[in-house]
Amino acid sequence: MTDFFNTNKQAIIFAFIVIGVVLLLRFSTSLLHKWLEQRSRKKFPNEEPTTIHLTQKILNALWIVLGLMALAFIFIDKEQYKVARENFYLVLYLGIVAVITLVAASMVQTWFTRSVREKIANDQDPTSYKFLRYIAIFGVYFIGGMLAILAFPSLRGIAQTALGGAGVLAVVAGVASQEALANLVGGLFIISFKPFKINDIIKVDESMVGTVTDITLRHTVIRNYENKMIVIPNSVINKEKLINYDLGERMCCQWIEVGISYGSDIDLAKHIIREECEDHPNLIDNRSELDKYNNVKKVIVRVIELGDSAVTLRAWAWASNFTDAFVMKCDLYESIKKRFDKEGIEIPFPHRTMVFQENQLEMLNTKLHNGTSVNQNEMDKD
């Protein structure tokens, strides 16, 4: 045993030093983690310090990997020291870059999340912060990836070119598709010119109406009234003609259109529609002082069309926003239908009048009497 110790004295001492350093680093990491966690929970009691937990796990794993690599020096030949030492420094460098990148990305994410929360709490528009968050996080990971590539000599030229400033655009243009670039530019246009923002209610077409929940580098997300998420590429939504119900004045004029039969009393029908509209709680008075002075009705009802089988009436009813207007429209169609039924106002439905010549009528009666079927072609013949 003594001979073994004397023979391998330096290796054993080196191993104990490496193990001691690893344990010391892990202990120091644990102390630092507890101190940072206490400060974070004291400053932000409602937030989980995920960044601090992630950093501790990465550092502990890095210390173990470096310790194992250091212990491997005991078992390799001196001729391999140079390669092993280069690999050791490479792993150390990549580990440090990974820790810094992940911590920086997590800090950026946390800062933007808090800023968005503050904007919402202060009733301000958080759209720019939400969009810039994606750009900032992408930039952090991009720089981290380029710094990691610098560790490999064969790829160092690509990293230096990409980090050179103008080379960034060249690299992005080279690896990204034209559609991806169009979506990115489209997102920048949306943020810059603000045709809509987060929490706005927009209508792209009849099937895409809802609230904007997010604007990313690639797409815009809309939550419709079925609570389904509609994902529209930024390049597409920039080309569409859309309605923003929250852009400018939020008051919304809702058309209430009802068709009545030609034999119904138009004046009574207009009175019923106006009365039902004025009784609805969502209706607001949009008349000017001059209109009130001139006794203009709160709800205007006019005949807008004399159709094939119906006289179409339209009421202009105002609500404070699109949501209230939609609810008001649904309620009014129901209440107007019930009042029409009660007051004897007929809502016509499509019907067809068929005219038969005398010989066709006799043939039809004969076939019906004999139980023979009659097809449409025979009925249409002269």
Descriptive account of the structure:
With 382 residues, the chain is an alpha+beta fold. It folds into four domains: 2-188; 194-244, SH3 type barrels, CATH 2.30.30.60; 252-343, Alpha-Beta Plaits; 352-382, no CATH class. It is built from 14 helices and eight strands. The chain has helices spanning 2-7, 9-43, 50-71, 81-121, 127-149, 156-162, 166-175, 178-193, 234-237, 266-279, 289-293, 322-343, 358-370, 376-380; strands spanning 201-205, 208-215, 219-224, 229-233, 243-244, 252-260, 300-306, 311-319. The chain has a five-stranded antiparallel β-sheet with strand order 4-3-2-1-5. Strands 6-8-7 form a three-stranded antiparallel β-sheet, with helices on one face.
Brief synopsis:
The protein is an alpha+beta fold. It has 14 helices and 8 strands.
Biggest sheet strand line-up:
4-3-2-1-5
* Rg estimate, integer Å: 38 Å
Helix content: 55-70%
Strand content: 5-15%
Main sheet characteristics: 5 strands, antiparallel
Average pLDDT for all residues: 80
Sketch the topology as an H/E string, one letter per element: HHHHHHHHEEEEHEEHHEEHHH
The total strand number stands at 8
Domain unit count: 4
Q: Structural class of the helix and strand makeup?
A: alpha+beta
What is the helix tally?
14
Could you give the distance between the termini? 122 Å
Low-confidence region ranges: 378-382
Global morphology:
elongated
Seen as an oligomer or otherwise, the chain set is: single chain
